[in-house]
Structure formats: C-alpha cells, structure tokens
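Entry 12.
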Amino acid sequence: MKIDQFNSHITEQIRGGAHGWIQWKGTDVCMDFHCKCGYRGHIDDEFVYYIECPECHALYEVSGFVEMIEADESNRSNAKHCRGDA
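Predicted 3D structure (tokens):
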C-alpha cells in the first residue's frame, strides 16, 4: 500500500480523532522499529523513508502519521503550541 493510500485509509479510520502528520524534510530520525515478524530494533539515521527488516526482509515505507494520545495536566508546561490551521 502506497503512503497516500495508507494516509487516506488512516484518515478515514480516525476522522474526528486527535492525530497529526509529520512533514518529512529529510532530517534525522531516531525511531524504534517493530516488524510484523516480531523483530524489534532501533534506527538513528537520515532520510529514513523506507526500512528493511534485517530478519524477514519485509520492506516498509515510513508513514508521516502520528497518533495523538491525550495527556494529563502535569505535562502542560512541556506542551508546544500549534499555529493556525494546517
């Protein structure tokens, strides 16, 4: 499934729910990786648009979808502020 198809699918599933999208600009990423085969790993690299699992060799295109999980008030001082409509 291509990213734009995936994004449309996810948007339909979460319509009305809190979520976000990363706008990839080729910068560094630090990410934990969990494959469908059960492999778990970590990647620190630049331009991570695709990831290959070293165990089963499944190839993944990295989505820009970010799940938003409502936080408690004790984290209010750590919050960043959005500007305008996306």
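Annotation: The chain has a mean pLDDT of 81. The first strand starts at residue 19 and ends at 21.
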